[in-house]
Amino acid sequence: MPTGKLFILGTGRCGTHSLANILGTVPQTLALHEGSTKTGAFNPDLGPMRGLNCHIYRDPHKARARIRATEENRGLMRLRLAWLARSRVRLIQRLEREGTHFCESNPYIYHLTRHLHARFPEAFFVHLVRDGYATTRSYLSRDKTTYPDRLERKRRTGWWCAKPFPPTDDEHFATWGGMNRLEKTAWFWQYVNDYIQECLQSLPSERTMTLRIEDLCEDRVEELLNLAGLPSDFDRKSLQRRVSTSKRSKSEGWTETQMAAFERIAGPTMRRFGYALLD
Length: 279
Description:
By secondary structure, the chain is α/β, with parallel strands linked by helices. Helix content is 47%, strand content 9%.
């Protein structure tokens, strides 16, 4: 019997962990979030893969060429991607033999999307999106890991470099050094979401879905499971818990200047995903 393979892509702080917990209640399914199961078991080979982003973006003059190499799945980058995916491939192959479905929710694997599709053409990919105000607000609370103003300890470097930086052909490259954390995080939100959309548009439409976390409900979860070839049974209480803890003020404490900066950078992407800009 064929087994389902589902990959959840996003920016992080967008509901990937909550959705992984919901998928973890589906029968005969192994659901991971950044390499961890709901019970906390962790496989370092399936972890966040921060090193791939570090390799791509550490030199902004080479970033675009390296991104194209991941998209075309060619040359040395193809070997690098295959090495990064090797543990997933082995795990999925074992689960197939056991008749177990595989789900991974991971905000770091968007540059691995085309490689995973080439390796598993039957896999289903979901772009999980959260309102840009709420995502940015959540990231700003993590001041030591998201574009920090300074690096206090060397061990922070991996987290710091795992976030993308504008390639030289990006309009924000020249002004990046003078941008504050809110502006950089707003750029990150729009850049990653736009890039994931670009990736999914290159895949067969029947193998992809874009889902706003605010729209997640029983019907959408069932639709997702059916499209991905997974059992449609799941614990409804896990969905209720997500809804009950996701209601927050979108831009509490922001100044008018900060609001204007966010909207200048992320406004077009907000509109594309159907989010209203605040007055």
